[in-house]
Amino acid sequence: MNPADVWQLLTAALLVVLAGLFTAADAAVGSFSKARAQELVGESRAGAQRLVAVLDDAPRHLNTALLLRLLCETTAIVLVTLLIAEHYDGSWWAQVAFAVGSMLVVSFVVVGVAPRTLGRQHDETVALWSAWPLAALTTVLGPIPSLLILVGNAITPGRGFRHGPFSTETELREMVDIAEASALIEEDERKMIHSVFELGDTTVREVMVPRGDVVYIESHKNLRQTMSLFLRSGFSRLPVVGENLDDVRGFAYLKDVVRRDFEAPEVEFTQPVEEIMRPVVWVPDSKPVDAQLREMQARRQHIAVVVDEYGGTAGLITIEDLLEEIVGEITDEYDEAEIEVENLDDGQVRVSSRYPIDDLDELFGFDVDDEDVDSVGGLMAKHLGKVPIPGSVVEAHGLRFEAEQATGRRNQIATVLIRQVVPEPADAGDVPRD
């Protein structure tokens, strides 16, 4: 073996060591919390301030560590393979097998297991030590790791990861899946943790109560009428509007109406609801759910009006809507299983509000043709011109529809009573005589 070969072997060994150092840095920084790093700043630890800066953009710095580890490891494998091919007499597949076998052991132990173990056992020391080199190398490489991630996302089917699949969030998601598969956590807990990560990628528009489902009260209505709508709809907060739903002037709270009615019963029929309404909070429909949840918690708000890009009312958002993105649908003890079809003794039929109008011919023997809607609930909303609430009645297509009960936190109509309308008999004077 000549001196050039010795240098080639030493270079490969040095690259393996560097790859191991990058692995240790990745493991230490990836498992280090920003709060802990800020505590080290308070203790005036050397490198702590730089570590906080690295953790502020952790995915970018971890992608740099990964890229450089792969570069060092791949280069070392190539150098060793060339060296074996030059000095090992045998067939090409034997040379490849020897190179792969030897480097597999070295890569697994020296680059994979040992550095990662040390990085997590001594995460504080390794993270402080590696913060400055990682920051400097990330600056030198610039956008190269991010560009490579974009290329990878472009050629990968489906939705890619913005910071790459090597970010700490993605690794934590995988750890949660493994924990659920190992029966360490329940499936519902796994879904809840995943939902927390998705909050930042979900907008208010996706979880709001849409404009068409909003129940509101006109500003000139008195307290008695407002109380009646509260009781019929099942809501405890209602938007107060002027000319239309794009003119939301405030929110009426059930407890405010009850308190005012208790303190001054004589104004129940004379005082308009706009005199006791609360101010409106406006929210853009593009706002991330996690930011909106933090804001509503900080301001102690429960409900807000969602506006679209043109300034019109797109819907309503409540804190319960946001929490449902984490814990799933919130129901109460009054919710019942959805009924599809139930024939009653008085000749009426109870159906789900989602029952298709195309299937009504099977119940009543004639077609109900309405091109604008597909369900019984949609048919009622169309003819009422507003969201149906319990007690709402519509007569259309020879049938009488009565909204029966609401269910769920949003109090949407669950079931509808339908009966055929019997035409009134003609008067005797109207009957033509021969």
TrEMBL record:
Annotated Gene Ontology cellular component terms: plasma membrane
Mode of membrane association: Multi-pass membrane protein
Keywords of this entry: CBS domain, Cell membrane, Membrane, Repeat, Transmembrane, Transmembrane helix
Domain CNNM transmembrane: 1-189
Chief localization: membrane
Cellular location(s): Cell membrane
Span of domain CBS: 208-267, 276-333
Transmembrane portions of the chain: 66-85, 92-114, 134-155
PROSITE patterns: CBS, CNNM
Domain of life assignment: Bacteria
Keyword hit for Transmembrane: yes
InterPro entries: CBS_dom, CBS_dom_sf, CNNM, FAD-bd_PCMH-like_sf, FAD-bd_PCMH_sub2, Ion_transp-like_CBS, Transptr-assoc_dom
GO molecular function: flavin adenine dinucleotide binding
The family this protein is said to belong to: Belongs to the UPF0053 family.
Protein name: CBS domain containing-hemolysin-like protein
UniProt source species: Nocardioides thalensis
Lineage per the UniProt record: Bacteria, Bacillati, Actinomycetota, Actinomycetes, Propionibacteriales
